[in-house]
Write a structure and sequence with these properties.
The chain is 71% helix and 0% strand. The chain is an all-alpha fold and 506 residues long. Helix 3 runs antiparallel to helix 8, helix 8 runs parallel beside helix 14 and helix 14 runs parallel beside helix 17. The protein is globular. It starts with a helix and ends with a helix.
């Protein structure tokens, strides 16, 4: 007979093994696989069937009660930014800010801002034509600029809410969203710096080998690995028209003329039809939104959430503070951002067109919400069964720093099945009950799961294929240099930054 503790651990091993097997080898969707894994973990671990069913439903409901609405609003917001030209306006603004010769830094910064609400492969498909035009103007290989854009998108996609992965990790660990955003940005900075340096090196390496990638983009989503289907869904964006309300880009003939004429084609062939009509897909420079309208839907919610966190930490009292804290509640703040996007970016669109774009976001949000809730169900089963407490007692006696546990679990899950979002959700769900009684700051634990999910993107990750096919990379060596290496550099840099921040501030 097994002891109670051994039976709990056996239940966890069986449940997680079954989860990985179902995701990799069967036709079962990740949502159903997570629920089934929760049920197996509880049954094998010795829970009574009635208690197990209650733990699953409570875990699902409690998780979505805190973050479900934010995920829905955030994905709707991202969809509007995709189809209105706001992402292209951000790119042009950063290009003007950084100046000629610093195209990698400008594209990386653009990606870092755009990917806060937009899925990184959608952002890459939208902005990659701009990277190509810049490469031709600056005389640089498109490979280095494309990797800079991809790495900037990755940094905030994995670390900064309201992107669903870090948002789910924050909700599972019970982390204040303002703190998650702040420390995510702090850790994202060194990730951005290291990957930009790599992108510049890769551009020089490509130049010495004559890799110019002048052929058109060859995005082929049908070749994407199955691991990240719940995480991504690449869609084409609107044309990057010329500056409206900003000075034209100068210093070179091809990109300045193309940008100012509004002839930079957005998206890739066969990737969708977003951006048509009055939303910036006509090539008319006047259709591109101004900088303040493009940035406001992202910056206003972030600032409101920071204000909420600051006032709450200070114990601010009075009616003014109460209203400001209310406006900074994540649900209200992101809703305000969505309203700014609807009326600031789609003011000239018809009611039916606005509703269509918002409903497209809702459609993609649904599966994310279900997967996140199912991860919460698995985590609650571990709490209710006592498995989390038992494993925590064992870890407390080991030399392994507890902070590394969510990092290692996320790393393993990412390597096995490819999706960063699924890796974060799974790692947070498994380790949150374990770390609850240990001396680990919840925000650092959530960031550890987020950082671990960056590791070594390769053939089972859809983003790997989006980048390589959009850039026209076909040989395996260059594919690995293009994205497997920089994603791993981001993972390692993120770990070092996480340990430094945890050691200095927690």
């Amino acid at each position: 007979m097994l002891s109670d503790g051994a039976q709990m651990v056996l239940g966890l091993v069986v449940g997680v093994s079954a989860l990985i097997l179902m995701i990799l080898r069967t036709k079962i969707h990740t949502f159903l696989a997570l629920i089934a894994a929760a049920a197996l973990t509880g049954l094998v671990g010795g829970m009574a069937p009635g208690d197990l069913a209650q733990a699953i439903t409570q875990g699902f409901g409690n998780t979505l009660g805190s973050i479900g609405i934010v995920i829905g609003f955030g994905v709707m917001l991202g969809r509007i930014l995709e189809v209105t030209g706001a992402a292209q306006r951000m790119a042009l603004t950063f290009l003007q800010l950084f100046g000629r010769g610093r195209e990698e830094w400008a594209l990386g910064a653009t990606g870092a801002v755009v990917s806060i609400p937009i899925f990184c492969d959608s952002g890459f498909v939208i902005l990659s034509p701009l990277a190509r035009a810049l490469a031709r103007e600056a005389g640089k290989p498109a490979l280095g600029l494309g990797v800079a854009l991809a790495a900037g998108l990755m940094a905030t996609h994995h670390l900064v809410p309201p992107t669903p992965g870090p948002l789910a990790a924050a909700g599972t660990f019970g982390v204040d969203l303002g703190l998650m955003i702040f420390w995510g940005l702090v850790i994202a900075v060194p990730v951005y710096l290291v990957t930009m340096l790599y992108a510049r090196w890769l551009g020089r390496w490509a130049a010495t080998r004559g890799i110019t990638l002048e052929a058109g983009p060859r995005h082929d989503p049908t070749t994407a690995g199955s691991g990240a289907r719940a995480q991504h869904g690449a869609t084409a964006g609107p044309s990057a028209a010329g500056p409206a309300g900003l000075p034209p880009i100068t210093g070179g003939s091809e990109v300045s003329a193309a940008v100012n004429r509004g002839t930079l084609a957005g998206g890739a062939a066969g990737a969708g039809t977003a951006g048509a009509g009055s939303l910036g897909g006509t090539g008319d420079p006047d259709e591109l939104p101004s900088a303040w309208r493009a940035f406001a839907p992202i910056l206003v919610p972030v600032l409101l959430i920071f204000l909420n966190t600051t006032l709450s930490a200070m114990g601010a009292q009075g009616p003014v503070a109460a209203y400001l804290i209310f406006l900074g509640n994540p649900v209200i703040a992101v809703a305000i951002g969505l309203l700014l996007a609807v009326y600031g970016l789609m003011g000239r669109a018809s009611r039916d067109e606005v509703l269509q774009r918002v409903e497209e976001g809702v459609a993609s949000a649904g599966i994310i919400i279900l997967v996140t809730g199912a991860g919460g169900a698995l985590g609650n089963v571990l709490r209710a069964s006592g498995t989390g407490d038992f494993i925590a007692q064992q870890i407390a006696q080991m030399p392994l720093p507890p902070l590394l546990l969510p990092f290692l679990v996320a790393t393993l899950v990412r390597l096995v099945q490819g999706s960063g979002t699924v890796a974060m959700v799974t790692a947070a769900s498994i380790t949150a009950p374990i770390l609850a009684s240990l001396d680990v700051a919840p925000v650092m634990a959530a960031q550890a799961a987020a950082v671990g999910s960056m590791v070594f993107s390769y053939f089972n990750d859809s983003y790997f294929w989006v980048i390589n096919r959009t850039l026209g990379i076909t040989d395996v060596k260059t594919q690995l240099l293009t994205w497997s290496v920089p994603s791993t550099l981001g993972w390692l840099t993120g770990l070092l930054a996480l340990l430094v921040v945890n050691g200095l501030f927690f």
